[in-house]
Amino acid sequence: MKQKALAKSAQDALSGRTHGFRRVLPFLGPAFIAAVAYIDPGNFATNIASGSQYGYLLLWVVLFSNLMAVLIQSMSAKLGIATGKNLPEVAREQFPKPVSFGLWIQGELVVIATDLAEFIGTALGLYLLFGIPLFPSAIIAAIGSFAILELQRRGVRSLEAGITGLVFIVVIAFGIQVFFANPEMSPLLTGLFTPRFDDVNSVLLAAGILGATVMPHAIYLHSALTQRRVIGRNEEERKKIFRFEFIDIVIAMVIAGAINASMLIIAASTFFYNGLVVEDLGVAFEQLGILIGPFAAILFGIGLLTAGLASSTVGTMSGDIIMQGFIRRRIPIYLRRLITVTPPLIIIAMGIDATKALVMSQIILSFGIAFALIPLVLFTSNRKLMGGLVNKKITTIIAWGISFVIIALNIFLLYQYFLG
User: Fold this and answer.
1) Half-sphere exposure (CA, 13 Å, Cβ side) for 212?
2) 214 φ, ψ to 5°?
3) Residue 112: how many CA atoms within 13 Å on its side-chain side?
4) Distance between CA 21 and CA 10 in Å, rounded?
5) SS3 string of the chain?
6) b/e 27-39 (16+ beta carbons within 10 angstroms → b)
7) Each residue of 95-131: pLDDT tens digit?
8) Looking at the chain, which terminus has fewer C-beta neighbours within 10 angstroms, N or C?
9) CA 177, 182, 184 angle in degrees (round to 5)?
10) Model-level pTM?
């Protein structure tokens, strides 16, 4: 029933029977689900480490990553609208079977790395807030992720509303923390608009921020969220749908970017300017309580917990799309959730340092971006596939430039890790 109401509202907007902001409302939602991937707990680790070590120096990387995200997510959404298929499905049709199979394997590895970050972050949030040991916290986190997945059974609008609500909890938590941190505006603006590095480690952290912000599984997911949500009956309607969806993307990415920037700003204005290098989220929680106050520490824990719960659900959805698209196989989503929680639970049970595991998961994710991004640019630049929604020439040039930057950073990371 809700899906029928959504379709009717969308058609009223496309035909001009509704006006103003009401025209946009039926199209809001998909980008907010995809945007959750941009604020997962891995972002906490990289942004806190960057801000505490280099102050506002790498704030421009957050801005640059967010601008990249707007372009990338708009291409992903556009692919779903134009073709009625998601990125893995198009890749399966366009590439040889062995290539498609290989992309499925790397996609599953991306989801495992994503789940690692999300479950460790959620468990850490519970531990910091309530003192529950990490392993029982991880079990609670797994139960919570199953509960959020249940929203899918109530329809797409229920899921979108639930995820959006969780995102705004994170927004409120970090907005209040920034207010308490009282950052200096002059160095903040310099860091935001002046691209520069300090040393090799700052480049590594920048690559970590990039890997934590532009998430490969979000690229796969967004095309699936738009492919059949509102179906355009002709090319003109599909163009209108994309214009509305682009508004959704801009709003969601601005919110995600503001959250990421807030994390780095808080670390810079509290830890860096007090001479503290903080690379552990537990230490960050304690020091926020000391330097700003217990309420700030509680808000930090709430933000971490909420972001982890929301992003764990998005990771499961992405895994389902990756398998179905690349190899035409599907397992029940609750069984997939059960399978994907196992590696994080094992890592937590082994006692591996949570923050280090979070940072490493983000570096792994940065290697998966190219495998999602290159096919996306190829397909959205193909007029036969995209019709009137094909990339403009300047869009394609910028997209290939972004791909080159990401691949170059990944090669640099490999060099530093093995030979540096």
Assistant:
1) 37
2) -85, 105
3) 13
4) 12
5) CHHHHHHHHHHHHHHCCCCHHHHCHHHCCHHHHHHHHHHCHHHHHHHHHHHHHHCCCCHHHHHHHHHHHHHHHHHHHHHHHHHCCCHHHHHHHHCCHHHHHHHHHHHHHHHHHHHHHHHHHHHHHHHHHHCCCHHHHHHHHHHHHHHHHHHHHHCHHHHHHHHHHHHHHHHHHHHHHHHHHCCCHHHHHHHHHCCCCCCHHHHHHHHHHHHHHCCHHHHHHHHHHHHCCCCCCCHHHHHHHHHHHHHHHHHHHHHHHHHHHHHHHHHHHHCHHHCCCCCCHHHHHHHHHHHCCHHHHHHHHHHHHHHHHHHHHHHHHHHHHHHHHHHCCCCCHHHHHHHHHHHHHHHHHCCCCHHHHHHHHHHHHHHHHHHHHHHHHHHHCCHHHHHHHCCCHHHHHHHHHHHHHHHHHHHHHHHHHHCC
6) bbbbbbbbbbbbb
7) 999 999 999 998 888 888 888 777 888 888 899 999 9
8) N
9) 135
10) 0.89
| Token pair recorded at residue 392 | 């403009």
Q: What's the pLDDT tens digit per position in 68-105?
A: 889 999 999 999 999 999 999 999 999 999 999 999 99
- Rounded to an integer, what distance in angstroms lies between the CA atom of residue 319 and that of residue 224? 12
CA dihedral 261, 265, 266, 270 (to 10 degrees): 170
> Buried (b) or exposed (e) across 225-252, using 16+ Cβ within 10 A?
bbbebbebeeeebbbbbbebbbebbeeb
Structure tokens at 405: 């930057």
Contact 245, 31 (CB under 8 A): yes
Rounded Cα distance, 125 and 301, in Å: 5
In whole angstroms, give the CA distance from residue 10 to residue 179: 39
Q: Which two tokens mark 361?
A: 């998961």
Q: Closest by alpha carbon to 281, among 359, 352, 213, 366?
A: 359
